[in-house]
Design goal:
The chain has 199 residues and is mainly α. Helices cover 46% and strands 10% of the residues. It has a two-stranded antiparallel ribbon with strand order 1-2. It has a two-stranded antiparallel sheet with strand order 3-4. A two-stranded antiparallel ribbon has the order 5-6. Helix 4 runs parallel beside helix 6.
Length: 199
């Protein structure tokens, strides 16, 4: 994805969606969770996946950004290390453990009008609850045998990660990065084919 992309990539495993909120741009990496408003937008895009952590109707505040950013940084450090075949940094694993422990999931009983139901609930401020859910998602990803299939988009300059359902998938979003790669390849062929051999 290019620096002009401002809409977060969603639809991957939640921890990958979190990492994909820092796309590469012309001037380095952008942060699509830089403000409380951007975090609120991302929560809307995630829908039901984060409803348990954000479902009390509380709007994100500036203070909620730090724990979410910390989990993103720890997740990225662990994921990138494992993708290189290296040991994840102990500080990254420790940070994810602390985030999960700061708002543990507690079952809570409710009466829904016809039956007793049980719903997991996490205590604390919105940012702490979100960080715990995101850290749990990172833990799920890091321990999943499918992790070895996680790929980085092959488009030039793109840092988006995805877990392909099909082994031949090469781009984060075929309609964006895939098209850009095909157009670039076409222009390279045109350029290389039009060169006259020197005499």
């Amino acid at each position: 994805m290019t620096g002009e992309d401002t809409e977060p990539l969603v639809g991957e495993q939640l921890a990958l969606d979190l990492l994909n909120t820092r796309p590469a741009g012309l001037e380095g990496r952008k942060d699509l969770l830089a403000t409380a408003q951007l975090l609120a937008r991302w929560l809307d895009l995630q829908g039901a996946r984060l409803a348990g952590a954000a479902g009390d109707g509380t709007a994100p505040q500036r203070a909620d950004l730090a724990p979410v950013h910390a989990v993103r940084d720890h997740t990225e450090a662990a994921v990138r290390a494992l993708m290189r075949g290296a040991r994840p940094p102990a500080s990254a694993l420790r940070g994810l453990n602390q985030a999960m422990g700061a708002a543990p999931s507690v079952p809570e009983l409710h009466w829904d009008g016809t039956a007793v139901t049980i719903t997991p609930r996490r205590p604390g401020r919105l940012g702490i609850r979100l960080a715990a859910v995101l850290a749990q998602s990172a833990a799920d990803l890091l321990t999943d045998p499918a992790f070895e299939r996680v790929k980085e988009c092959e488009a030039d300059g793109c840092v988006m990660l995805f877990l392909p359902a099909h082994p031949r998938r090469r781009w984060c979003v075929s309609a964006k990065c895939g098209n850009r790669a095909r157009v670039a390849r076409h222009y390279r062929r045109q350029r290389d084919g039009s060169r006259e051999p020197s005499l």
